[in-house]
Amino acid sequence: xxxxxxxxxxxxxxxxxxxxxxxxxxxxxxxxxxxxxxxxxxxxxxxxxxxxxxxxxxxxxxxxxxxxxxxxxxxxxxxxxxxxxxxxxxxxxxxxxxxxxxxxxxxxxxxxxxxxxxxxxxxxxxxxxxxxxxxxxxxxxxxxxxxxxxxxxxxxxxxxxxxxxxxxxxxxxxxxxxxxxxxxxxxxxxxxxxxxxxxxxxxxxxxxxxxxxxxxxxxxxxxxxxxxxxxxxxxxxxxxxxxxxxxxxxxxxxxxxxxxxxxxxxxxxxxxxxxxxxxxxxxxxxxxxxxxxxxxxxxxxxxxxxxxxxxxxxxxxxxxxxxxxxxxxxxxxxxxxxxxxxxxxxxxxxxx
Length: 352
Prior knowledge:
By secondary structure, this protein is of the alpha+beta class. Helices cover about 45% and strands about 25% of the residues.
């Protein structure tokens, strides 16, 4: 463990580097925005954010302008090609120290990261990349304060300043989302990029939908008996599946070709699961409201879904994903077949 003296020394070095790089950013901001405008990066942002207008209209007034500026800086400073073009256009008007820093960014491009805070000492933040496990230091009064106020996970644009990392733009945080939730979200944003580049690839290729998660920053985890409520699902195809072999369910219902088996513990109704069988297509979907319930049902049912669900997401991220991407959690369509309104409509048609 570092002594207090060492931590203070690290903090002072980081503060000095942060001031130096902040001064650099102040000097080049006008040039970056003019360069971005010529490349129509501001319009690029406006086209993307338009998709999420319903959510963004509820954000603080300054959010959109700040996010637009952040997007322009990200697009320029994450691209070696654009940085070279920027430097070629502006070098004659730049101080030599600014040219040096710009060249450094070509070697260490800016990027969006997910990180968790391990410890804070004043404004010095000992952080860990939530995807790679890499540890790093930030000098950030805002991150330190957000951590004290209950923030669990952070999403931010960062760059290396020679001593540690520094944030730029909006520091996004979450109180009810896990790093694992971002697998579910990233696949819905762009499944092809996710398959080749993972979460990191998606959020650095399509950062705007991740920025819109701002709407869900303050919503806490939904926990029941010390276990997070997480929607878990696995999908399988079993042509000719015999529904009579299913046992141990608490209720059974039918809607057209779909049969639903409900598994609810009498003493714990929030810990539940459902099995949907489409007798027409052979599609079988197992849903559960926690990882432990999913595993319990997977073990007891007469076919192999595997010990881990194909998809799982906390309630906050499941809701956010539907709002932002328009994509529903697997099995939701079947679930709606057995909603109270649908059941009443079916009963009325039956009586007619």
